[in-house]
Structure to design on (402 residues):
């Protein structure tokens, strides 16, 4: 197979990461999820803990600033560290896509690589109940209810994605394939995507 | 295969209808697109021409009323014929899904059948350039530019869908599978959906 890139955007708890990892393993592609954290930390000088926590999160210490920033794309000094991190991430993702066949999870990679013709952009989603059950099975219980954990995480990913891309999170237009993993199933989604990667697009 | 339903929502020119027809033929399923028009005309007493033209269109003679209606879901007397048509369509689609395995194109069928567990909801989309080329090949040239024809048709479908469902047109959440036919290809999309219909969901 010629060099190809697969990006996977996913709702929290949908199994998107599991699907991405399996597809990468089965195709023998490099896989970048938390692996990106190390690279970004090395190149940016940020602490890996900070990169992990902020890599898909825009922080707004003041809700008023949140709205201003979202609505006007105002670059506020409070955002400079996040913006710096995004630029480093942006450059690393672009370089990885140049170098080798790989699967990249999240971090606006569909947007960053939107002009490449060797890149398949995929979004994995599922209804709340399916995801709530799944995160308890996969990550265990904690003090916060599964639905609140999902809502918090989705909100962060949505805000991050929409802030940096000016696109609507979950809009099918931005992806070549969107799958509801609760109906299609994790294993079938893996098979689907492996087949899709064989297409001569 | 046990009884199953496939609904196909599609952007104009994306090839969604071609995909739907082929999947129905290959699976031996009943196919409802313009076939619905005859049934609706018979049951509603409306003229088939009117059903064909208004079956996916909400008409607003006054742009001010358009905004009020969209924003408040006000049922205005000017909409009564369309609403009546929608109710007939709604009942026919629900009944067809009860009766037999079938493929239904458009007409908010994903929304109407959203609570069935034997129904796979699919959305087919593609970028403007691909669709503009395709509609000229399939439907020929006319006085209106392909892009304007697409924008007009998409706008009507979006308005109709959002008016009757209170959902966002093209939001991946409302579908089990979304495919960009320009990258996946018409033939591969057909194969994908035939495989998906075999899943024991």
């Amino acid at each position: 197979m010629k060099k190809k890139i697969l990006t996977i955007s996913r709702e929290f708890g949908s199994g998107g990461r599991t699907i991405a990892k399996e597809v990468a393993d089965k195709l023998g592609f490099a896989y970048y999820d938390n692996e990106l954290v190390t690279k970004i930390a090395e190149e940016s000088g940020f602490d890996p803990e900070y990169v992990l926590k902020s890599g898909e999160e825009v922080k707004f210490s003041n809700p008023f600033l949140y709205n201003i920033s979202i609505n006007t794309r105002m670059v506020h000094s409070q955002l400079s560290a996040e913006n710096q991190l995004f630029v480093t991430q942006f450059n690393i993702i672009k370089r990885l896509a140049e170098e080798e066949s790989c699967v990249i999870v999240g971090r606006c990679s569909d947007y960053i690589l939107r002009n490449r013709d060797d890149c398949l952009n995929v979004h994995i989603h599922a209804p709340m109940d399916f995801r709530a059950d799944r995160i308890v099975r996969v990550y265990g219980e904690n003090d916060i209810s599964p639905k609140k954990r999902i809502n918090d995480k989705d909100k962060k990913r949505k805000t991050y994605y929409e802030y940096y891309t000016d696109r609507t999170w979950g809009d099918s237009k931005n992806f070549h394939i969107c799958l509801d993993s609760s109906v299609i199933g994790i294993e079938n989604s893996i098979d689907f995507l492996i087949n899709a990667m064989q297409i001569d697009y």
